[in-house]
Amino acid sequence: MRFELFVAVRYLRAKRRQAVVGIITVISIAGVAAGVASLIVALAITNGMRRDLQDRLLGSTAHVQLMRVASDGIRGWRPLTARLEQLPHVKAASPGLYEQVLISKGARSGGALIEGIVPAQERRVSDLLSKVTLGSAAALEPKPEGTFAGEDHAPPPIVIGHDLADTIDARVGSTILVTSPQGELTPLGLIPKFQRFQVVGIFHSGFYQYDSSMAFTSLADAQRLFGEPDVVSVISFKVDDLYHADQIGRSIEQAAGPGFLTTNWMEENRELFHALRLEQVVTFIVIGLIVCVAALNILTALTMMVMEKTRDIAVMMSFGVQPRQVRMIFLLQGLLIGFTGTFLGLIGGYGLSWLGGHYRFSLSAAVYSIDYLPFAARWTDGLIVAGVALAVSLLATLYPSGSAARILPAEALRYE
User: Which of 169, 316, 329, 381 minimizes the number of CB atoms within 10 Å of its CB?
Assistant: First the structure.
């Protein structure tokens, strides 16, 4: 062991006449550990929120959507869908007809976005139909040519979200009333159009925005409800590169021709992910102040130690120890305090993150969009946090180590 490191370790382990120095040293280690652990846990939560929200968004919605600039919908969508599905980087395409409706059962009602779909194609673009937990979406499959749902006077089938079902108190087999604002013009004015549907499935994606306001029916039944024969409002696409969805969307738009525009998942959720990134930065800065407070404790502890060891320093320097070696002793002391606190903090932070991920803490989905607190601790975050903690600890040692190196042996030992 080098001389400087040997003396630094001995100073930290030796019993002191001033117990307060030892107490401040322990507090410094605990402060660094608490700050590092808090940062690891906070970053794990923000990473988990971003990861889960992104995974659920991408699993529940299309990567790119094509629509007409005019509001009259897309006609001739079958050949257009087949042609665009052959474009490079496009993995799947699915037509859909969206409309805001009011869904009610008895005295209870709720707003919803109903989508008419072709189930076989929708499953290739979105995972929502695969998350039906009650009932089945099989009834949404197209009927044989020339027949329509409801010809036998049975209500057409519909699949609704879990939270929407709770809002209107609907169960599998319940009959609900769907009211569309696309009504009929009569001498008495515009009368909303309504249709009774039978709930055949309830899906639970874990993403509140979808579970509380989404419903699916067959494309043919949606077109009849909205009075839009053989028209779709969007064509949804799944692409092979999520982070180039904007570029792929532009190529789809160009291939579709004039009068079309595209949106992608990054544009639709830009504000959400920007807010999550900003929250991560602010969290790092605010909780990082704990490490700065611990660094002040390190500064205090080392300053008091220099005052306590003035005579020892003078004796060592009179035996030929160089000022730079004295400076190194106290630099190493500060780094040992910072390293010990950082090591304990990393163990505590990753341990708490593992426990949080293993024993899920429930959240209000209406407030946080997801129903549990996610943790995603990354090793890169540990490296960054450890580097910051050690750097702050090193900065805290500069003043006391410099003061120790400037001690004059003759002056220190004059009255001894």
Answer: 169
pLDDT in tens, 284-303: 888 778 788 878 888 888 88
Q: Are strands 175-186 and 132-135 parallel, antiparallel or unpaired?
A: unpaired
270-308 helix and 310-318 helix, angle to the nearest 10 degrees? 70
pLDDT above 70 as % of the chain: 89
Each as own residue / partner, the long-range contacts of residues 261-266 (CB below 8 Å, 24 or more positions apart, any chain) are: 261/66, 261/67, 261/68, 261/69, 262/64, 262/65, 262/66, 262/67, 263/64, 263/65, 263/67, 264/63, 264/64, 264/65, 265/57, 265/58, 265/61, 265/62, 265/63, 265/64
Burial of 402 (0-12, 13-18, 19+ CB in 10 A): middle
Joined together, the tokens standing for residue 289 give 């102040």
What mean pLDDT do residues 42-63 have?
Answer: 81
Which residues are registered as beta bridge partners of 97?
116
The string of pLDDT tens digits covering residues 237-256 is 998 888 888 889 889 988 88
Task: State the pLDDT at residue 157.
Answer: 92
- 101 exposure class (CB count in 10 Å sphere: 0-12, 13-18, 19+): buried
Note the pTM of the prediction, 2 decimals. Answer: 0.71
